[in-house]
Amino acid sequence: TYLQQLFRNYHAVRLLVDREHFDTLLKMSNSDPEAAQRLQLKNSLLVNPRVLDHLTTEKQIATLITFVTQEATNNMRSTFLQRIMNHPGVMEAIVKENYFDDLVAIVAGEVQSYRRASLVAALIRNVTLTKHLSQQKQLSRLIQLTTSELYQNARRQMLNAFVSNPETLAMWSKTGKLD
To answer: What does each C-alpha distance from 155 to 25, 109, 111 come to in angstroms?
Structure first.
């Protein structure tokens, strides 16, 4: 559809968001009569990097959390979370706006072990997040997600993320532990 093409066009969305039309775009994403199409439209809009910038700047991270918890399908959720967790400002905003517990619950609730491992690893690799958790003496929350993983391959993927993050690696080398 034309809306799908519009929402996938980074430059067009950037221009519209910069001209303060985000709310109009969001309404448009909800306008399709078919639920599956509405979901695809909203997903395409919300993962746009300029939209993510806007949501972090305007302190509207709740829009992302609501989408992932109430609207996204299981298949869509993991990809959506990966996209938002790789955006430079989103994780910082999630922490600042007190949505970290919600995010951890969403990630821990992922049924597929390979998806859960990938999401936990994305959390662990995020230097901004691990630095914040380290300062708050809460890095053990990510460690607990890793050690409670039942599947060895998933646990290995998570542990590899710890050693690939300079923040966790530095803490480990200084103290011999991760908290």
So the answer is: 40, 15, 15
